[in-house]
């Protein structure tokens, strides 16, 4: 199992799922209508490191963070 | 990197940073202060921070600054920050002014675009995500 957490204003509780790659996570998250407007604007971190490749392999216990648009300062 | 609950004590932070580097032989110290402006009827701005990714982002900037003989420092507020007080300060120290002037601009601009911090307007005690002023981070849309 991997865990997906939604940061800042998304306001959604973390979900757990089985997935071997980020592409599989994407496919599962797209099924959730609550998330459809967020995904295109959100960046992704794997175990607190930013990632850019859908083929990134995942292993049990991995933690994925979904980061919506930012505005510090 | 320093994080505080509520508004920053700007004078204390800048004074302390100056003391920390007093013997480091830097010729230039350029501070930046972000202050909450009174506009659109807000009482305050409020901030959420994702600290692990912010820390990694800041460490990358420390490396970039080091490669140019400089250092960067920053402090940010978590939670509510009333108008006319400060939510963000940063600074560059470097041997010469040119590097410091360039770095402070690059650092503050990249901070705005890629530091994992979320801003909310506070009106009548309610937090509203400042979506129209927010920027998707590098790599956004990967899962879309």
Features:
heterodimer; A: 73 residues; alpha+beta; Ubiquitin-like (UB roll); five-stranded mixed sheet; 2 helices; 16% helix; 27% strand; globular; B: 144 residues; Aldehyde Oxidoreductase, domain 3; seven-stranded mixed sheet; 3 helices; 7 strands; 35% strand
What does this structure look like?
The complex is a heterodimer of chains A (about 70) and B (about 140). Chain A is of the alpha+beta class and about 70 residues long. Chain A has one domain: Beta-grasp domain (Ubiquitin-like (UB roll)), CATH 3.10.20.30. Helices cover about 15% and strands about 25% of the residues of chain A. In chain A, a hairpin with a 2-residue loop joins strand 3 (about 45) and strand 4 (about 50). The longest helix of chain A is centred in the middle third of the chain and has 8 residues, at about 20-30. The radius of gyration of chain A is 12 Å and the shape is globular. A five-stranded mixed beta sheet of chain A has the order 2-1-5-3-4, with no helix packed on it. Chain B has three helices and seven strands; from the N terminus they run E-H-E-E-H-E-E-H-E-E. The radius of gyration of chain B is 16 Å and the shape is globular. Chain B has a single domain (about 1-130), classed as Aldehyde Oxidoreductase, domain 3, CATH 3.90.1170.40. Chain B has helices at about 10-20, 50-65, 95-115; strands at about 1-5, 30-35, 45-50, 70-80, 85-95, 115-125, 125-130. Chain B has about 140 residues and is α+β, with helices and mostly antiparallel strands. In chain B, strands 1, 2, 3, 4, 5, 6 and 7 form a seven-stranded mixed beta sheet that branches. At the A-B interface, helix 1, strand 3, strand 4 and strand 5 of A face helix 2, helix 3 and strand 6 of B.
The ordered string of helix (H) and strand (E) elements of chain B is EHEEHEEHEE
Strand segment tally of chain B? 7
The total count of strands of chain A amounts to 5
- The CATH class label of chain A is Alpha Beta
Q: Shape of chain B, please? A: globular
Alpha-carbon distance between the termini of chain A? 36 Å
Give the overall average pLDDT of chain B: 97
Placed side by side, the strands forming the largest sheet of chain A appear as 2-1-5-3-4
């Amino acid at each position: 199992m991997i865990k997906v957490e939604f940061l800042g204003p998304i306001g959604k509780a973390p979900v757990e799922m089985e997935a071997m790659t980020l592409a599989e996570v994407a496919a599962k998250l797209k099924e959730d209508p609550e998330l459809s407007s967020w995904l295109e604007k959100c960046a992704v971190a794997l175990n607190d490191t930013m990632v850019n490749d859908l083929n990134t392999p995942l292993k049990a216990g991995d933690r994925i963070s979904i980061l919506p648009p930012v505005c510090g300062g | 990197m320093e994080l505080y609950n509520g508004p920053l004590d700007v004078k204390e932070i800048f004074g302390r940073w100056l003391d920390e580097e007093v013997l480091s032989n830097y010729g230039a110290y350029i501070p930046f202060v972000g202050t909450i402006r009174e506009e659109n009827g807000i009482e305050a701005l409020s901030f959420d921070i994702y600290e692990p990714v912010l820390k990694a982002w800041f460490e990358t900037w420390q490396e970039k600054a080091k490669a140019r003989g400089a250092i960067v420092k920053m402090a940010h507020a978590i939670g509510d920050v009333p108008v006319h007080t400060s939510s963000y300060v940063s600074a560059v120290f470097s041997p010469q002014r040119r590097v410091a002037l360039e770095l402070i601009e690059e650092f503050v601009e990249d901070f705005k675009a890629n530091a994992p911090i979320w801003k909310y307007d506070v009106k009548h005690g309610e937090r509203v995500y400042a979506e129209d002023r927010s920027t998707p981070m590098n790599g956004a849309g990967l899962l879309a």
